[in-house]
Write a structure and sequence with these properties.
It contains four helices and five strands. With 109 residues, the chain is of the alpha+beta class. Strands 1, 2, 3, 4 and 5 form a five-stranded antiparallel beta sheet that branches. Strand 2 and strand 3 form a beta hairpin. The longest helix is centred in the middle third of the chain and has 10 residues. The radius of gyration is 14 Å and the shape is globular. It starts with a strand and ends in a 7-residue tail after the last strand.
Length: 109
């Protein structure tokens, strides 16, 4: 299992809508996330900094393939097109990242 931490900005004027759509995530999106071996997925909001922090656990054996599968799915593409205009990616993210991946520096079970 691999723990993942990611961070992304959110536009202040979009926070109410972002919360609303995430309170009603489409079942196909939830199923796809599970089918791509992601478990224990949570998104946190930090105001007034307007940052989103995502945490999930990857339980598969080929992360790149699972992420490609997710990205290729039409319903996920539709979901992302709904959410992305509300987001504000960090300028410090690596090339190819939308959510900036964070380094796991400590963990206690």
């Amino acid at each position: 299992m691999q723990r993942m931490g990611l961070v992304l900005g959110i536009k202040p004027e979009a926070i109410v809508e972002y919360k609303r759509v995430h309170a009603e995530v489409w079942p196909e999106v939830l199923d796809l996330i599970s089918d791509c071996n992601i478990r224990n997925y949570t998104i946190f909001l930090k105001e007034p900094d307007n940052l989103l922090f995502a945490y999930y656990e990857y339980h598969g054996s080929d992360y790149a393939a699972d992420m490609a599968k997710m990205a290729a799915h039409p319903r996920m593409q539709e979901w992302w097109s709904l959410c992305e205009p509300m987001q504000s990616p960090l300028t410090t993210r690596k090339p190819g990242e939308r959510w900036a991946q964070m380094e796991d520096v400590f963990h206690l079970d």
